[in-house]
Design a protein that fits this description.
By secondary structure, the protein is α/β, with parallel strands linked by helices. It is about 30% helix and about 30% strand. The protein has a single domain, classed as Rossmann fold.
Length: about 180
């Protein structure tokens, strides 16, 4: 594992998919600040039709590619693999997806801690139209970074603490605006 990567703990992943549901069939997931890609790979294993990993660090992007190679057999299905790795800044990726009119059902955000990026990511997601109506945004952050209960059309519906880590789950409601 690369130094500086903080993979999402298995207990956090289990809790996420217990909340989201075990079957992600027909859904698309955006994994921002993807790191090792653990959450996105879990989504693929649960039937996500498309998982997009966004990771700026080329070494981490290579780790994601390796992990996918171990996870997804290359063969006859190679024409359409249910993933894309985008090697760029997460905020630039959100803007790019907006220009491409790309939409996601679930977004998982796990930025580096102690930089205020969780709140910035939530605000950026609100500002750009890349999420399906009634999507779920999951923000993993350290407990010292307090996120709002409401951010535009996003409403906090659940929080779970794991030591110094918190996952904040937001529902997006297209009828719910500030």
């Amino acid at each position: 594992m690369l130094e500086g990567i903080r993979p999402t703990q298995s207990i956090v992943r289990k809790t996420l998919f217990d909340i989201l549901g075990q079957d992600m069939g027909g859904m698309s997931l955006l994994d921002l600040f993807a790191g090792s890609g653990a959450v996105g790979l879990e989504a693929i294993s649960r039937g996500a039709v498309q998982t997009t990993f966004v990771e700026k660090d080329p070494r981490c992007a290579a780790v994601i590619e390796e992990n996918i190679g171990l996870f997804i057999p290359k063969g006859d299905e190679a024409e359409f693999l249910p993933y894309q790795i985008v090697q760029t800044d997460a905020f630039a990726a959100i803007k790019m997806f907006s220009r491409q009119n790309k939409k996601f059902d679930v977004v998982f955000v796990d930025p580096p801690y102690s930089r205020g990026l969780a709140k910035k990511a939530l605000k950026t997601l609100e500002a750009y139209d890349i999420l399906q109506p009634n999507c779920v945004a999951i923000i993993q952050h350290e407990k010292r970074e307090i996120l709002p209960e409401k951010q535009g059309r996003f409403l906090l519906f659940r929080q779970k603490k794991f030591g110094s880590t918190v996952i904040s789950l937001y529902k997006s409601d297209s009828e719910n605006t500030e």
